[in-house]
## 1
Amino acid sequence: MTADTRSGDGVAAADGGAEGAAAGDPPPPETERSLRDLLAALPLGVLVVGADGVRTVNDAAERAFGPRVGEPFAGVFPRSSPGAPPFAVRRADESGSEPVEVAGRAADGTVFPVEVIVSPGPGPGTALVLARDLRGAARAEAELRRQRSLTALLLESTTDGFLGTDREGRVLFANTAVRRLLRQRAADLVGRPLAEVGRRPADAGDGAAPEGPSLADVAARAAAGGGASSRVVLWCRGTPRSAQVTVAPVVAGEETVGSVLTVRDVTEEERVEELKRQFTAVVSHELRTPLTAIKASLRLVTSGVLGPLPEEPARLLRIADENADRLAALVNDILDVERLDAGTVPLEPEPTDLADLARAGVEQLGSAADAAGVELVLAAAEPAVVHADPHRIAQALTNLVGNAVKFSAAGGRVEVSCTRGAHEARLAVRDEGRGIPHDQLEAVFDRFRQVYASDAQRQSGSGLGLAITKGIVERSGGRVELRSRLNEGSEFTIVLPLADTREEAPDTTR
Amino acid sequence: MARTVLVVDDEPHLRELAALSLERVGGFTALTAGTAAECLAAVAEHHPDLVLLDAMMPGTDGPGTLALLRAGAAGAGVPVVFLTAGVQRHQVRALESLDVLGVLSKPFDPLELPAQVRELAGWRG
């Protein structure tokens, strides 16, 4: 039995150093013997190394590496090998509790994977190396451990909060993000019923924040097959925070064994949304009122009712008038986009015949088309009644017809048609313009987007029209289709469900 | 003799522009007031043929001013037309349901405003 001599060295080293600088009394003989036996029986390899090389190994280490006492460290652990990171002895005063996979070399020269933990050794300038031979089953075990620790690391590192519960709704784990949000330690959360997590304290002032659903309510709703995502007010040590909570069941086999809640702090987002709402309200009033005054003043002056103007001032005032119009249109467009975003665009749906809107649209934009030398025609007007806000759909159509005229060359033709299918009404605007490149078909609906923004034919406009059109139509329960061929033209179609085929009126106002 | 229209609006510039439009484009005599109290005083003093009343004013708003007019002897029978920036039709319908000749929308076109007022009032020429 070799363990007696070798591990005896190790134990002696642990007592005060390999140099024999023992401090205090040596342990009683029976304790020393049982420590030796323990070290010999340990399935983990134990090596004590110093600058002069390997000083001590136990049985398990000898089984893995062979008899190596006295050999340089690099002989046992080649600094690098394929598939393993370079490995250097840590300084003895530096503790490293994380296992690292490195290459080990046996006495016969075989290189194999080893998992090591290096920590300061029992004497100055020494290191203690715990080594696990990763050949065979140990390899899979180590892999599993690594995967687990990686999963835990990911869960702890993510900025979204995660709460896991068992099937009784008790908290099993809470990651760093959720603990930070709730301002609670893991020990305060684990084991608690979900119903008690983040609840309003009894001493919170009245009206401090709306009560709303609790985490347990959302989890119960998800379990019952209802909406699994909800806004929740979480009380975090007396401070209410808004969180978007999504619940997913944890299923093992065919059994639901618990649930996992994703908790995202949206307090700041809500604050920004509120600022946007206020901004919209301010823009709405504070920008429009002076614009109205400017418009009305210019209109009165340029009309000549206040007396004739010399040619040059008159021309400049007409320029001011036109630009005030553009500014007013831009303000209206920006407000529309904001309200479509916020879902607060006022829609007042009623039975609406799209054929009427097609006729009105052609009539309304007739003079603009004439001025541009574009032929604007009503190609079809089949009666097709939909349930939608006529003013808003007219606005959407006007945007499409206006664009078609704007992007048509003089002598071009724009066709507006209303046709009725089995279930849908189609309001189409077709032009013979230069078309939209295939890769930009989606992007044309983005805000402030003009396909030909950089070229000389750039047209004036806010770049919001198509975004507004799409928003209005989609909020009305329909869609906008776009077909386009380069140099042949484009066709935009507003598609809405026919009124009599709708099963249920969607709630389009909020 | 020219008809007299009282313009009630809290925005002084819009008030002035509406008055200018009514006088220079429409040929009316225009008076102005900036608050409900000024409106009541002007109606009592000048007995206008029509009141063009901004629906949204700080303090007593358009409907509130209308109620005060109708409650008093001087304003009980004066024709009123609302001027509103309310974009929602249900808001417009709510105003139309009150004791008024009609509702005109803001921003107004100063070249059209007199004709719109004349039509609602049923005045010729």
Note: Chain B has a mean pLDDT of 92.
## 2
Amino acid sequence: MLGDPQDRFVLVAESEIAVLFAAEVAAAGLEYEAASLSARIGAFLGGFASGNPKAWEAYLCLVVSGGISERPSLAAAVERDLQFCRKLVIDADVSDVEHDPNVALASAIAPLLPLVLDGAFLQEDPFSKLDNRLVVAGQPRQLVSLMFDSWRNRVESAADLLESAEGRFQP
Amino acid sequence: MKISRIVARGFRGFTLERSFDCDADVVLVIGPNGTGKTSFFDAVTWALFGEIRRLRGSRDAVRDGYIESKFDDAPATSVDLYLTGAQGGALVTRSAAGVRVITELEEVLESKSAQSWIDNVVLANRRSSEGAEQMFLRTTLLGQEEMASFLRTNSPRERFDSLSSLLGVDGVREFYAYVGRLAKSMSEQVRTAEVELSRVQLRVEGLRVQLADQEARAEQIGEATRTKLVATLKRLSGDASHLGADVVSVGAQASAIDIRDAAADLESQIRALQDQGAARLNAIQDLIAQQPAVTEAVDRADQSADLRSQLDQQVAVLLKEQEQTQSEQSRLLLARQQLDQGSLHAQRANEELVAFLLSGERHIVGDVCPLCQQPIEEADLRSNIRERTKAVPGDIEETARERVKVDEAEVALADRLASITESMGVISQRIAVIEQERRAANQLQTRWLNRARRVVSTGTPPTTQTLQNAIDEEIRRGARLAELQPKASVVARQTATLAAVDEVVETREREQSASQAASEAAARANALRRWESTIAAFGASARKAETELVEELLASQQPIIRSLYQRLRPHPVFTEIGVEFNLLGDNRGEAYFMASSPWGHGNVSTIYSTAQVSAVAICVFVALNLAKPDEGLNVMMMDDPVQSMDDYNILGLVDLLRLAGGNRQLFVATHDDQIGALMRRKLRPRSQGSRTIVHRYTDFTADGPTVMTVIDEFQRADAVFKSRDVGSRIAPAQ
């Protein structure tokens, strides 16, 4: 069936866990084409490889021309139809607009791509540098020291604070 | 490092022991609500930290009461956490007694050293346990509470707080909340000080008004009155001084207080003189009354003096007689000694004679006589023998008779001496009595005279007439004082009107004291106000620091959050999200999650559904987990994250977890069987040796949940296509 010359898939790909199908469709017939193509995929995977885990790991990329970006609800409806496979709608006309087509494409097929962790790592407890930050912000070092000591010693009343401030800090 | 097994007993929902095999890349916990899914994650948290942060506020009164199973007969609470990893495996056991770690090298660590090992090796942290726990909760375990907190966030302020908590900045928030409490307490101190200040100031004001009034009244006392009073006082003082008063004279320019005091002193002294006069009168009358008794005692003593003289003579006679008797006794004693010696001599001669007669001639001529120590001559010996045989018995009898006479004379003398001694004792007692009476009479007379001299002030012994004269004089003086006393009282009452002046002085002193107290209270209030503003500024600074920290941390995570968001795709139109911050005037932060699309942007909280907001929260959590360095425990835990999500969001989340999992051990709990099945399929093992374990709770009793465990091993999926020529139409594989 997929080998049929009439088949409209322009690309298929397979990994260890999933199968990807890609097809070019026009925005005008997107809903119909998406349903038709996903049904084909369902029939293909269901009939061909019963018991193969990839049978329910199919993804269909729909490269849509004809102004799909102006019809987001249509694209959403297609993507939210989870029958047979998960669908990703890609705007083929993205190069005509001001957006970077590569970025737009990467965004569209992001669910299929591995994650790149180039963010900063969280190494330290933010609280550990609060005292220095407060000093840099202009708070007197003795006051900062006094307040952190009070916090650690569970000093909860102003009277106790004043007592512990005796000889250490006076405003 | 990964978790290979969790064993819990007597812990929250797990009354009897439950052992969970976790030796897998993915561990799914599927079960209805309330059957112990969260207890599963609590067990991990408690084993690592000995604390469950989300339950702190609801901690039972009994220590660790919130940890224990609530069912009867539950075993002692404990959790075993088996860990494996390149750094070495270990068994962490936490119980009420504390924590213990047994490492792969069979090293046993207890309490602090065990916790230290957990902090360093498992949590790979260089911070306090509390900080590590915060980090763990924001990057490793996404609990329902955290999610619900984020979902409930309505205002930008609350959203900021939730973000702060997710980023671990809540420690800072807790700190400035603490500073806020101190500031509030300080404000209360300031208010108290201000109330006290107002009270003291009011008192000062009141005293000033009172002082002004008293000063006005003092001014109203006329000069004529003053002059008249001074003149009268002078006259009365002169009279009183004649009568013995020691009054202070006042001049015309004397102050009102001096005048008043002088009048009061005069009145007081007159009263004192009257009292003294009355007392003196009584004393004189007493003297007169006592005088006959004194006279009688003295007369009696005089009469006793004659008797004393007679007794002394008797004593002299007796002493002489005693002396003669004692002389006679001496003589008798000498005679007695002579008799005793003669008797002894005769006795010995007799014994010698008897011995001679009994033993025959022993002594020979020329021997020394044992009695007289003379050489014995023959003639002497013979005559002596003859004499002795005749005289010795007679001497002995004579001496005995003489001895009896001497003994009788001695007894008579002893009786006589005893009689003399007895007589002298009687006489001595009588003399002592007479002497005692005489001394008593003298003392009585002396006391009376002394008192009389004091009372009547005379150097010579007073007579009855002298005393009577003194009584008359005292009566006259009392009469004069009685005339002066009412006059002095009148003057004293009149000068009392000058008391207003005294009140002025007193009130002025009180006003000065109150003013001093007011200035001290003002200083204290000012110091407290400085503290109040200092702490307020400090709190604001801490608040600002929190905002900056949240902004910085989230900015560093924005790229990965965006990337995750693009994969989750919770919204069809808004394909990008970002966080915008707003620092308010009070340094409090506001956070807005802004969604953007080619057509515009909007606030996530206002345009997104609950499920979509939840998806954004998951993006933030996963971003934080992925940003965590691959040190120590490398897991991601999510406790029922898909509540209220639709199928599309759930599928997106599962895909996201598959991508994000990487080398992390993934723990996910869900209450939904279908979602559980979807996760099991999607998160199946993907490489040789990897496993997915599903713990399904099928029932829940007092013992805990009934757990069925299924282990999915890796299964190689058959290739779907013959080849992978991109761009060509490919026939399916056979």
Note: The beta strands of chain A are 9-14, 19-26, 58-65, 86-91.
## 3
Amino acid sequence: MEQKVLVVDHEKCTGCRQCELVCSVFHHGVSNPSLSRINVIKWENVGFYFPMLCQHCEEAACMSVCPKGAIYRDEELNRVMVNYDLCIGCKMCVTACPFGAMGINVKEKKVIKCDYCDGDPKCVAFCETKAVDYIDAERANLKKKREAVLKYSELMRRFVG
Amino acid sequence: MNAISIIPDLCSGCESCEIVCSLSHEESFSSLLSRIQIKKWGEIGVYIPIVCQHCEDAPCINICPTKARIRLEESGAVITDEKWCVGCKSCIYACPFSAPIIHPKKGKTMTCDLCRGKPLCVEVCTTGALSFTTDGRLSFQRKRASIKQSLQTLKSIP
């Protein structure tokens, strides 16, 4: 089965934060960006916006650091999930994640993270500019490859003829 | 959701957190009386500060037979009520980090109480290995740092 991944192209992000709203509405039923699993980190003075979300690492730091083994890999959707029956809320995963992708639901006192919306990410469905996209893992780097090939072929044309 | 967050990579093992903790709580300079403990592997240069994480569904509260482990309402800290603690050490076994410390003289357990919302260990930590976060702001700090780091790496590639 082909594995799908969520890829982020920060150059396309306009910082509208629509993804944050739909994420929190889908998971919690309220439009509250602090309950969102995706967060647009902004540097307004330079106009730089970067949507941050869980990378579902293969050797996940959150998974290794969890003292209760509450974080597991769901092979079917290739995602990292939290088992809330085992979670004791020690927040070690929040500290350990190098991307800060593990969020905290302050009201319910639980850690929250991206779960790919069970295979149909709502942030992708609502992103106008497709700054976040849910595509096959093999196609994730296709754009970069194409750019590299174009550059290479141009060089070849210039020097080899 | 208050907690002291630890970045072990930054810890130099200087023990100032232990000293200030023991000074403020027990009025002595002894790392044995500190509620934060640095575990050291000196030969490989690994230092990991261990302190109570004030878990939301804390195993120590669930296991304590005398209900001596309690959560303070205002700071969210999980502490031992010395009046009820019988020193059975169940909380140490239940804790995945072995964070509770046995007081050498009283024989009762003690853990971090977040210094009434202003942890002194965080204030004296010079390397930034310890930080105090409230309201889940921690993950946002990590997000910002991670983006900055990846941008620097990208820029260094010609």
Note: Residues 138-156 of chain B form the longest helix (19 residues).
## 4
Amino acid sequence: MEPASRRTQTGDFEEEAGLLRAAQGGDQAAFGELVRRYQRAIYRVAYALTRNPSDADDLAQETFVRAWQAIGRFRVGEPLHPWLARIATNLAFSLFRHRKRRPETPLEPLVEAGQQWGAEDDPAGRVEEDERSGHLQAAFATLKPEHQAVLALRVVEEMSYEAMAAALGVPVGTVMSRLSRARAELKARLAERTGERS
Amino acid sequence: MNHLTDEQLSAYMDGAFRGRDAEEAGRHLAGCQPCREALAELAEQDAALKPALKHDPGEAYFESFASRVEDRIRSAAPSRAPAAGFDLGRWFRSPRALAWAGGAAVVVVGGGIALMTTREVTPPDLRARDGMTQMAPAAPGEAKTEPGAVVPPPAATATPSMDDAAPGAPSSGDLTESPGAAQEGMPIVTSEREALAKSRADAPAPSPVAATGADEVARVRKKLAAQPMDAAKRAATGQALGATGAREESAAREYSFAQPPPARSPSAPRTQEAPDLEGEARLCGDVRDAAGRPVAGAQVTLTDLGRAATTDAAGRFCLRAPHGEHALSVMAVGYRESRQVVRVAGAEAIARVTLAPVAVLDPRGGSVAGRAPAGPPKTALPTVPTGPPATQVPGDAMDQAKDAYAPLPDTVRGMVREARRLEAEAAARGSAAHFDFAAAAWGRVLARVMGGPLEIETRRHVAETRYRAWEAGPGSRRARTAIEALTAYVTRAPAGAERDQAIRWLDRVRP
């Protein structure tokens, strides 16, 4: 359905349904395979919502723990990606609620120092990009959690509105209006930070 | 004609308009410069936002991700798993239970003369404790026997409630297991992480039986803490292995029976054994504390071979090893792990190991207030008279690497200790699944040190444990993960013996 989901799914739908049924029957190897299929997608969501590798790691892992615990309730035939994304975003919302500090605050300087490391790392030409990314990240972090979530799912995961509706537990119309408001809000916050008029 | 609204532009950009709506919006845009600009601006913002919200933790991270999830599921709430998954009773029905019976028989036959036993052979009196720990399943990483670790105080696992965390989940009460009070106000994910650490330090006892027998459990744990072979931990780890466990246990049994420790005489370490296998020699030695007292019950492991022994009351051990250099790890409760490279040559080699106590006051190593050594009789050690002494090849490199983790935050150092402990245990058991565990633990460390000075060293650990897992239990998945981890290490590591070794391993794993 959505590109992100296609990217993570290597087998066909039937195969995934088989894995899901097996996992529901308690087959942990099958569940492990599902984890491997969706780990990157869920990490992307987790990172977008926390902007911190350490939190993202925890959030992504916890998402699958919760998924395992609730796998019996999953309706085989529905897309798995939005379901997992919903767990991840709900966990992130809980994190926002429980954390006094904003999630962009790194937990440990060490982790923060390693944050820019990655396979896509390209030290050359990072500086300019970093500055812009920094502003965007900071502006994004000031958005309401539901605005962050809808933007993350759309921009990072390229989810369809239907999938986002499933992931966020709201109607498609709400996704449409929320996403639009989130984009406008981000633009305004970014303008505040960079001193531009919106 | 009215301009398109923000919402319409946003939806149009996302391709969410269908049919007539899309056509109308398209027609308007074709003739409206301001709307096109607004649309371009939106698209540009999205394009810029995407990289700002993305981060690639690297292949190594995802390599171990699934096993870490598995690990966490077990640690978090084994009782929540579906019926057939993570069956706590599985271990007791597994071939391992049978292997144990065989192992006990070996003890009976060889008990009269055996000084050292491999870890696979458990004294029968621990059997009852296995039963005890069945009631109180311990997390795989129970810290009671963690060498070089300051044992944290027992703490209940706190899994903060997340009512809406899992859509379609039965209920929040069903989902969240909170033996202890949920830590309100704590960062939720952080507290999860801490809860995991705590659950390792002192595994929760969800069963009412165990809860009522808490004192008994504590008493047994105390005993076990003094035991070199922590039956509870073995049981828990055995359980935790789950589906793959049974297969690996078979492998472990094979190891222990196919390569039984040579019978050793206390008075004459050079026994009249069958001739040595070609190129193999005995490596014997003694383990002492800083004051020169023998350390009993220390786990001595040739980590490269997966062979292990436990020191006797006089702190002595013997192992069989091929000629050449080997990594010798010695661990004992209350002491820091010692790692050194020993060279085995001739018919018999001797290694002397001195263990430094764990610093309990200042975990960063400022103070050295070691815990009391496990009370061995302070008998004078007969010296091992012959054979060329085992040459100590720069063990410093390893020690420095070990200490290199010292400046890290407590949470990371705890992960390092855990990883080392799992690795040593895996080496001792020669079990592929345990190496998987250890590799996952190193993967966790890696996720925390990436980009830092310890990344390469940690990658080396991930690569080695992945390789060992493949070596102990070859399979396509293990081969793949080993190749990935080794490649990740080799491509980053500086030239040197460790890198060369990794390249050799890589050649071996590659089909």
Note: The first strand of chain B starts at residue 280 and ends at 289.
